[in-house]
Design a protein that fits this description.
Strand content: 15-25%
Number of helices: 13
Number of strands: 10
Structural class: alpha/beta
Strand order of the largest sheet: 4-3-1-2-9-10
Radius of gyration: 18 Å
Bound molecules: D-glutamic acid
Order of helices and strands: HEHEHEHHEHEHHEHHEHEHEHE
Largest sheet: 6 strands, parallel
């Protein structure tokens, strides 16, 4: 093994499905020379409506898959997993781990002027209270207003990004937050960056949206530098894609999330 072998090892990224490709997109923009191994649990998505106990079981298996692929770092792209099972990832791996919650909370507190911050996510993410905890740790005086938006995930997967039905549902979900005069909104789910336009419309553009993947990518870069784990290569990194079920629309939806074609995708079965 060469001296810098660990630095050329891939970053492992996992999600409940393919939504985590928005996080891969943010990582490749910030860290283009890093190799990435991506796992999406497409056979068992969505995690958002499931119980914390089941999400934690799945998370242990997802983590084992990545650690078996020689990763030097793990990014938990799924906000739901980051909310209810980040400790499981840390417990089952021997490499640094970054989830979506803390970096986004810090970014939101820094961006907000009136300290009235909104958070939207899946049912499990909102029920966990993880964002409240992280925002209050970053700024005890900040007010956090939370709203679960369970219909957003299927709308994005159907490609209805700017459909009037999506705008209607966005208004229904987000009007209460608007009424509380939030100036910053955390998009606490892998899928929501694709709804940026529909969400901005509700707030008449007078809102700062925090993309959790982008906030996490800043933290990943900082931690790689701190640990001297950055890939010294000057070549563009490669991405290996693994899913637990190659569903018929996988490639089409995946490209929407990643912003480019996926190439080869391999299917793996995780042990129960
Ligand atoms: N990836 C999930 C998240 O970011 C959304 C999809 C799901 O419910 O599994 O919370």
């Amino acid at each position: 093994m060469s001296a810098d072998q660990p630095r050329t090892n891939p970053i492992g990224v996992f999600d409940s499905g393919i939504g985590g490709l928005t996080v891969v997109h943010a990582l490749t923009k910030r860290l283009p020379n890093e190799n990435i191994v991506y796992f999406g649990d497409t056979a068992r998505v969505p995690y958002g409506p499931k119980s914390p106990q089941v999400i934690r079981e799945y998370t242990a298996q997802d983590t084992a898959f990545l650690t078996g692929n020689n990763v030097k770092f793990i990014v938990v792209a799924c906000n739901t997993v980051s909310s209810v099972a980040l400790d499981i990832v840390t417990k089952h791996s021997h490499v640094p781990v970054v989830g979506m919650i803390a970096p986004a909370a810090v970014a939101a507190v820094a961006a907000s002027r009136n300290k009235r911050i909104g958070i939207i996510g899946t049912a499990a993410t909102i029920a966990s209270g993880a964002y409240e905890h992280a925002v209050h740790r970053a700024d005890p005086s900040a007010l956090l207003l939370a709203k679960a938006c369970p219909l957003f995930v299927p709308l994005v997967e159907e490609g209805m990004l700017e459909h009037h039905a999506t705008e209607l549902i966005a208004r229904e979900y987000l009007f209460p937050l608007k009424g509380h005069k939030i100036d910053t909104l955390i998009l606490g789910c892998t899928h929501y960056p694709l709804l940026r336009k529909a969400i901005e419309k509700v707030f008449d553009d007078s809102i700062t949206l925090i993309d959790t993947g982008e906030a996490a990518a800043v933290e990943v870069e900082r931690m790689l530098e701190e640990r001297d784990l950055k890939n010294p290569s000057t070549m563009r990194g490669n991405i290996q894609f693994f899913v637990s079920d190659e569903t018929p629309k996988f490639a089409e939806i995946g490209e929407r999330f990643l912003g480019q074609t996926l190439g080869k995708v391999r299917t793996v079965r995780l042990a129960d």
